[in-house]
Specification:
It is built from nine helices and no strands. It is mostly helical. It has a domain of 134 residues: Orthogonal Bundle (Tetracycline Repressor, domain 2).
């Protein structure tokens, strides 16, 4: 999900807006504040992004790209198999250390859900990407029914983010990873049993 390169001035506006949108909420932040914090004018903002809506879309697209790159780089550093699947949770744990207000896409949905805003398509794309990543990694690791497994693993992933922020559970991601590991181990035992080689339970 890529757009045309931005000018240095536009990059500054986007950086400031991204921080404000995430920390305070999209609707709570006006273009006057963004322009002031970025050291520019509203005219420059509108010239570069067309409207606040255009800036919001660019913010979410940039966040989407950063998240995808972060997870992909982390997972690609791991060996094939179960560890790559579980590595998504480890990547999430690292990501959340700098994202104290939870998932920016869930936060945006809380503000725009039920509307016809184009930002909803970006939010849906991010959730679909994470789900498909789990499914692909499960396929590469040899697990059966990888699409369904990808859905289950992504639900654990999403729940961990919510419980880690709104639910006050600092261990939410670790718990989700542990549950995912148990699920993968159970599937591995089932696969070996069907093949005639039963694995010991751990």
């Amino acid at each position: 999900m890529h757009d045309k390169p931005l000018t240095p001035a536009a990059e500054r506006i986007l950086a400031v807006a991204s921080e404000l949108f995430y920390d305070r909420g999209i609707r709570a932040v006006g273009v006057d504040l963004i322009a002031d914090e970025a050291g520019t004018t509203k005219k420059t903002l509108y010239d570069r992004f067309g409207s606040k809506d255009g800036l919001v879309q660019r913010y979410l697209k940039r966040r989407y790209d950063l998240w995808c790159a972060h997870v992909t780089q982390y997972v690609d550093s791991l060996d094939q198999g179960e560890q790559r699947v579980l590595g998504v949770y480890d990547a999430l744990d690292l990501w959340m250390r700098d994202n104290h207000r939870g998932c920016g896409f869930v936060n945006a949905f809380a503000e725009f859900g039920g509307t016809d805003s184009p930002v909803l398509a970006i939010i849906e794309s991010e959730k679909a990407w994470t789900r498909s990543l789990f499914a692909r990694l499960a396929t590469e690791a040899g697990y059966p029914d990888s699409e369904e497994l990808g859905t289950r693993l992504s639900l654990l992933h999403e729940g961990a983010v919510v419980m880690g922020t709104a639910g006050g559970r600092d261990d939410a991601i670790a718990v989700a990873r542990s549950v995912a590991a148990e699920l993968l181990a159970a599937l591995a035992r089932e696969r070996k049993f069907v093949a005639g080689v039963e694995l010991p339970r751990t």
